[in-house]
Structures are given as structure tokens and as C-alpha cells.
Amino acid sequence: MPMSQATQPSLAREDHSFFGQPRSLASIFGVEMWERFSFYGMQGILLLYLYYSAAEGGLGIPQSTAAGIVGAYGGSVYLSTIVGAWVADRILGSERVLFYSAIVIMCGHIALALIPGVPGVATGLILVAVGSGGLKANATSVVGTLYAEKDPRRDAGFSIFYLGINLGAFLGPILTGLLQQSLGFHFGFALAAIGMAIGLTQYSFGRKRLPDVARRVPDPLPRSRWPLFGAIGALVVVVIVVLVAFGVITADNLVIIVIGVTIVAAVAYFVVILSSSQVTTVERRRVFAFIPLFIASAAFWSLYQQQFTVVTIYSDERLDRNLLGWEMPVPWVQSINPIFIILLSGVFAALWTRWGAKQPSTPLKFAAGTTIMGIGFLLFLPFAGGGAHSTPLLAMLGILLVFTIAELLLSPVGLSVSTKLAPEAFTTQMVALFFLSVALGTAVSGRLAEWYLTVPETLYFGVLGGIAIVLGVALAIAARPVLRLMSGVR
């Protein structure tokens, strides 16, 4: 007989077997850590694989096209979170979507490792994007089911969970980068698949201990409507295949298409929420307050996510990676940001706790994050136009430290405020809107990387850094009106 939800929190409070947390947290911690290991490990070598020549083990795709593909893929991951959340809420429940998504991710990495050329890239990236979106959308929800509403261990549990994310993000590029440099790209992709297999295996043994509420379907789709939605999904796939076959969707315009789809989805979400009769006047004001935050977030991510496009190209061609006569692999640069996050996330959490009600408001934090991100881009200017390997590694460390500070001011705050400003009837959709801002920014980062390859670096870093600073200052000036619209939320 299934346990009641009242019984489950009681048992959760009695379970302190994983660093004082429920034992099941270890299973979710593990699958998320290995998923991030595989995700960032693969992404650390993906762009290089696309534009390196065949003699170097790559596909020889032009850099601008390759950067656009990476940006479109990154945007698709966050677009997929919406699908993952819908399937969890209407059909399978969060836990099952998480499990099946992990299997899809593993299959994607296997495709990248075993299928040569463009077919392997296309198959692998589609599977990884869909799977990562499903897992990302539901892992946090499953962690939340381990705790009673007022369990004092909840924040600490999420801190441990996020530590797993960043441990995986740190180790993935280091190990796949080593394999790529010594044995080749496909061995790096294979390691990502092995990492995901390890995470999936340990999760398979632990998932039976998760509370029944993790498998609950909050708003079940009537069985009679399953064929309709199945047909819609199949039709979408067929349309995409036909468009690709007839050359309407190509590698060159893919990123533009993803940007367009994301904008349409975001506008549709805002229209649906704001026009709903279920939304009160106060809730509608709060949704309007989220619009400038959405814009700032998209601008921030369009610069921040260039770690996987422009910064990768820059590190390959311009960064001095020589360490005592040994050249550091390019993907290792991707591991710098997770180190800073691990070191600084606790500092920021303690700072907000210490300041309490005196801490800056959410609009001011968003403004500061966007402005500091712009400053990070301006820090490239002293090295603009330099020759091969002319930028010191210490300079890149400093720039990525600035990136991390900006991220900690905006990313966790954005997730938090999206739940606070959400109308009661649209809580999940508001979180989806925040992820749509990430999707839009990530896709735009790929498009901007194409521009990077065609203009002087002083123009590129100066203009983008300046725009971000202007947006940040504008949001800071508008902070008071935005706060009034937030109607009591800070």
C-alpha cells in the first residue's frame, strides 16, 4: 500500500544517512553529477570537433557555422526543459522522466562516440539536448520531494545537490580533454557516455527508495487525449525531417531558427499568463515586473554562454596554455568556472544571509550581474588583436572569475524570483519562462560568435560589453518602478 504524503515527510525527517540528509539524495546527487560530467565533458570538445580539420580528427566545418551549431544546440537544451516539465506534469511524473531522460542522454553520447561524421553529430546532439532538457527540468523537483515543507535541512540539501552539478562540470572537460588530446575526439565522447552510464546505474539501484510523491503526475492527461498529443508530436518530427530534407533547415541557419522559436514561445507564454482569468491583478503586475528581468537575463546569457563558443575559439588560438613546458588542453578552460562557483557560492549565500532584509533587491542584483558581465567582456580589450597564444592564462582566470561573480548575482536569483513572481496557476510556466531566457541567450551566443569571426576584436568585445553595461545601468535606474510592480516581492 503506497505511503501517504504525510508519512513520507515524517520518514524523511528520520533519515539522516547521507551527510545528515535523506539517503535518496545520494542517488539524485550521483545522477546529476555524472550527467553534468558527460554534458560539460562533451561540450568542452564539441566545438573543436566540429571545426578541427580531418587531419586533426575533426569534421572541418567552418568556425562560424560550428559556433552557430553549438549555440543552437545549447538553446535547444533549455527549450527541451519545457517539454520535460510538461511530460512530467501530465503523463509520467518527475522521477520517471528523470530516469528515461538519463537513458536518452547516454544514447546520445554513444551516438557521438560510435557514429562517424555529421550523422553522428546530428543524432547525438538531438538525443543529448532532449534528454538533458528532461533531466534538468525534473531533477530539482525530485530533490524537493525528499523534504517536508519546513524541513530545516532543505537548503543544505540543495547546496549538496548543486555541489554535485559543479563537481561534474569541473571534472568532465578535464578528463574528456585529456582523452581527446591523447587518443582522439571519439574517445572523449565515449568517456562522456561511460560517465552517464555510471550515473544511470547508481540511480537505478537507488530510485526505489524515492518517495511516491516523486512519481506523482500532478495534472494527468486523460487517456483519451494521448493519441491526439502523440499524433501532434509525431507530426512535429515529420515536419522537421521534411524541412531538413528539402534544405529549409540547414546547419547555417539552425541557430536563427532556434532563436525565432524561442522568442515565439516566450511571447506566447507571457500572453497566455497575462490574459488568463485565473491571474489576479496583483499577480498580473508581478508578471509585468518579470519582463525587464527576462530581457536582462537573456542579455546576460548571450554573453556568459560564449564560454562554449567564442572563449573556446579564443583559448584554442589566442591563449597561452603553456604550463612549465606542457600545453594545457583547450577544454580545461571550461573547468575554471565550476571551480570558482564551488569556491564562491557559499560566500554569496553567507553574504545574503548576513545582510538579510538589507541585501540588494532582485532588480539590483540582476542589474549588477548584467553590468559585471559586460565588464568581463571589456577585460578582453587589452589583449585584442594579439598574435597566437599572446593572452596570459592568468588574464583568462581573472576574466572567468568576473564571469562567475556575474553568474552568482543573476542565475540562482533568477530561479528564485521566477517562483516568487509566479501566479498560483502558472508556477511551472514562470520557471519555464526563466529557462526560455537562458535558451534565448544561449542561442544568441552562437549567433554572436559568428559575428566575432568577421569583425575586429576591439569592436566585438567593446560593443557587446558596452551594451550589457548600458542594459544593467538602465535596469538599476528602473529598479524602483520594477519593485513596485513586484508588489511586495524583493
TrEMBL record:
Pfam name, any one: PTR2
A Gene Ontology cellular-component term: plasma membrane
This protein's record includes keyword Transport: yes
Membrane topology per record: Multi-pass membrane protein
Keywords: Cell membrane, Membrane, Transmembrane, Transmembrane helix, Transport
InterPro entries with a match to the protein in the record: Dipep/tripep_permease, MFS_dom, MFS_trans_sf, MFS_Transporters, POT_fam, PTR2_symporter_CS
Domain Major facilitator superfamily (MFS) profile per the UniProt entry, residue ranges: 27-490
GO biological process: oligopeptide transport
Location within or outside the cell: Cell membrane; Membrane
Gene3D superfamilies documented for this protein: MFS general substrate transporter like domains
Statement: the UniProt record of this protein carries the keyword Transmembrane: yes
Entry's Gene Ontology molecular function annotations: peptide transmembrane transporter activity
Transmembrane segments: 37-54, 66-88, 97-118, 124-148, 160-179, 185-205, 226-249, 255-275, 287-304, 332-352, 364-385, 391-410, 431-453, 459-483
Family: Belongs to the major facilitator superfamily. Proton-dependent oligopeptide transporter (POT/PTR) (TC 2.A.17) family.
Protein name listed in UniProt: Proton-dependent oligopeptide transporter, POT family
Organism of provenance: Mycetocola miduiensis
